[in-house]
Amino acid sequence: MRALALLLPLALAAQSTDWPQFRGNPQLTGVATTTLPDQPKLLWSWEAGDSIESSAAIAGDSVYVASQAGELAALDLATGKLKWKYKTDGPVGESSPAVSQGVVVVGDLSGFIHAVDAASGKALWKFTTKSEIKSSPVIAGDRVLIGSYDTNLYAIGLKTGKEIWHFTTTAQVHATPGIANGVTFIAGCDEIFRAIRIADGKEVYEIRSDAYTGASPALTPTMAFFGTFDNQVLGVNLAQKKVAWRYEHPERKFPFYASPAIHGDRVFVGGRDKMLHALNARTGKALWTFTTKSRIESSPAIVPGADGKPTRVFFGSNDGNVYAVDAATGRQTWSFEAGTALSASPAVAQGRLVIGSQDGKLYCFGG
To answer: Domain range holding 140?
Structure first.
């Protein structure tokens, strides 16, 4: 039981039922703090005008989503009615909004980081990097952490928009930084997993992953988990500062681009092999796989069950469906056919699930 307790995500201690950033919390665990109906119903949809690859954020009564149309939008969570739109300098790819202290932050493919007033959509500040941004911002107290393809991880003042520090790697920073115990972690395109102190931007340690990595790390107090383009999922022991295990499917050799979710003693991650994989978090051994008809680049969301109901894993697939599977067995419990690829990740908060599609539709499901 003690080992299991050590693996429980820090996100479960959260008081809010919001989903204010990519993966739901700074540890990037993908765990919701709300439940969903057994068979969620489509409550509303909204047209963004271009592909949605960015994952939504949910805070209070608002949904924040960005798109390839070069816009950040705020919608009413209950009705899907547009509250405001903000024009970015370029299309928004996979960078997903983060919301904190009344500020919404997102990066665009022109290399700009935007901070917008969450209530009104008015610009607060803009920060320029030297290349495109696909990393999602994570807010730690008074600073925004975000990577750029200019090879840097930045810390920027949330209220000021001024650079506090930057850390230079040897390749583009695609991953979203995870946060635990005053340290931020990035799984790098330079094949290095890095721990960087948030206070001053100094590297604490690094671990070679020996593989190009686009996925972001999911963190527990003792471990980090992420997939690579070398067709593996890694479990990294943070205390011992070494790779504890590597998982590779025995037959299907495809990259893991989606970021994993971690709940209890299980890691869940989708692959370009068209499968969702459930792994033992301590050993990396496969527990089950669930097969779709196309690659999975949508990072899964974990929805804990209530009143004896099973914990479920929700995710999108490029086969045009949103799926829910039982976390214990991998058995499908629900699906919705959107009809086009869903590479964005679901956001789950306040009894609602929100996910965007590549034809520019944002869907909201609930009871």
So the answer is: 2-13+24-366
Residue whose token pair is 């799926």: 323
Query: What distance in Å separates the CA atoms of residue 163 and residue 71, rounded to the nearest whole number?
Result: 24
CATH number at residue 238: 2.130.10.10
Contact of 161 with 128, CB cutoff 8 Å: no
What is the reported pLDDT for 306?
87
The answer to the question of residue 293 being in a domain is yes
pLDDT digits (tens, 9 = 90+) for 150-195: 999 999 999 999 999 999 999 999 999 999 999 999 998 999 999 9
Q: How far is CA 41 from the centre of its chain?
A: 23
Task: Quote the pTM value.
Answer: 0.95
CA 307 to chain CA centroid, Å, is 27
Interstrand relation of 233-237 and 261-263 (parallel, antiparallel or unpaired): unpaired
Cα separation, 164 vs 197, whole angstroms: 12
Q: Establish if 92 belongs to a structural domain.
A: yes
